[in-house]
Description:
The complex is a heterodimer of chains A (248) and B (307). Chain A has ten helices and no strands. Chain A is mostly helical and 248 residues long. Chain A has one domain (2-28, 53-244). In chain A, helix 4 packs parallel to helix 7 (143-171), helix 6 (98-131) packs antiparallel against helix 10 and helix 7 runs parallel beside helix 10. The two termini of chain A are 28 Å apart. Chain B is an alpha/beta fold. Chain B has two domains: 4-218, P-loop containing nucleotide triphosphate hydrolases (Rossmann fold, 3-Layer(aba) Sandwich), CATH 3.40.50; 221-306, Alpha-Beta Plaits, CATH 3.30.70. Chain B has a six-stranded mixed β-sheet, with helices on both faces. Chain B has a four-stranded antiparallel β-sheet with strand order 11-12-10-13, covered by helices on one side. Chain B is elongated, with a radius of gyration of 22 Å. The interface between A and B is medium-sized, with 26 and 33 residues.
Amino acid sequence: xxxxRLIRSELRKLTTTKxxxxxxxxxxxxxxxxxxxxxxxxxxxxxxxxxxTEADQQSLMAFAxxxxxxxxxxxxxxVAREYGHHTVVPTFLASPRRYRAVLAQLGAIAVxxxxxxxxxxxxxxxAVAFSLPTTDYGFLVSAGNVTQVLAASAFAGAAGAVLGAGxxxxxxxxxxxxTGAVLxxxxxxxxxxxxxxxxxxxxxxxxxxxxxxxxxxxxxxAAVAAIAAWAVVPAAIGLIAVQRRDVV
Amino acid sequence: xxxxxxxxxxxxxxxxxxxxxxxxxxxxxxxxEPGRVTGFLGPNGSGKSTTMKMMLDLATADRGRATIGxxxxxxxxxxxxxxxxxxxxxxxxxxxxxxxxxxxxxxATGIPHRRVDEILEEVGLTDAARRHAGAYSLxxxxxxxxxxxxxxxxxVLILDEPGNGLDPEGIRTLRDRLRAQASGGGxxxxxxxxxxxxxxxxxxxxxxxxxRLVTQGxxxxxxxxxxxxxxxxxxxxxxxxxxxxxxxxxxxxDSLIVRGMPIDEIGxxxxxxxxxxxxxxxxAGSLEELFLNWTTTPSVDQEAIQx
Lengths: 248, 307
């Protein structure tokens, strides 16, 4: 009962500012870019081979890696601004057992990230589907594969948001949290791969493609578990830090 | 009226907080009684806010403990309905409306949303309820902070500088609200650096400086806790009284202001040491005068003050 109330409260926090609309606008822009790519884009030889097969189209629609990154920023900002604006103070006064409040926050962030991922994948799939008739190719992706792309994006969005939330609760200011999320998702992975090439298959964007069905570097269950680990580790560290630190 | 058996005294015992080498709160002990409005006074940086944060488990004490009705804040069954707190006056998202800010807290604590509208009405924010809190004036933000504290109808109020930015009408509303809360058996603990406001608002005061207790007690008694002594030998009398634990200050060429010692004891000590007195009378001071004395002179024997 307490957790349900806290999650409802956290969801209201996330939906009563303009932040979700800004992220939805980004998703719409990305979908538009995909539509333009389908309508106007060509391969090096001038053909449209990049949308010629089901695998090509599914690859174009695979939104999970984007969902992970975008939701990561969403989670980082969503949590860090709580500290920046001190709204975490009434939250922890209402729920002095802080782990409950943090778990509720992570739950709400995960749901929101999942929705962002799903909406992003849906918009992208719709953009591809509605722009294909302007080409010589029809929509070739099976319903099952569309479902996989949508589910993978929702999962990656939820995981990315939790990862970002963990960074946000550690860094506690929006600028720092965004920088941390960018470092974790965009800058650190290629650097790590340069140092240890065997790790390439375990980087977030590669794992997201595996879950979306457009990569096979690792097995699907392993990819799901690894993405979950990418999310849970910073979130757990953040939870421990919040428990131990003074709030203000 | 809150029955005495469920009233909530605030008990602070040996509370200590250090940040690195700096001791912000140093072995602080005091009790805030229900049924009275207690002011928490101290210069900027004296440890008032840190003490309040430790009372509310927002900061962890290095030593000692703070209890509310015998329990730590985190142990309270229903904290939002037990303690209303205002610690950060700007603890809201500027892009969120005042009403939504309160609804979020109502959701978290299971308080019905109709209570949000009631409390907005009570603090005079109904017309601004749908506006973004970032567009509120300082006084309106204070009202929103007060509404946050009052939302659960708690018997205990812990308010950090609640009068900041309030206009005279707002101050009067605050005073009436706090007075009503205390007269109903509630516990009201209010920090402030506005001495005139404290004089209007509070029954008791607790004064700290550099994280240590300087004095505590009924404001009226403390204001009477000084005596004017006119004598032929103020220098020798000052030494005698200070050796006995009083604090003295020169008041003209032949007079002393003596604090921390009952007036009859001053007379007895002067008599036994053979110092003639030409006048010995109670000296009522303004709170500002007392505050400056408490926070700028070396600490006075606390037991002597309480006598």
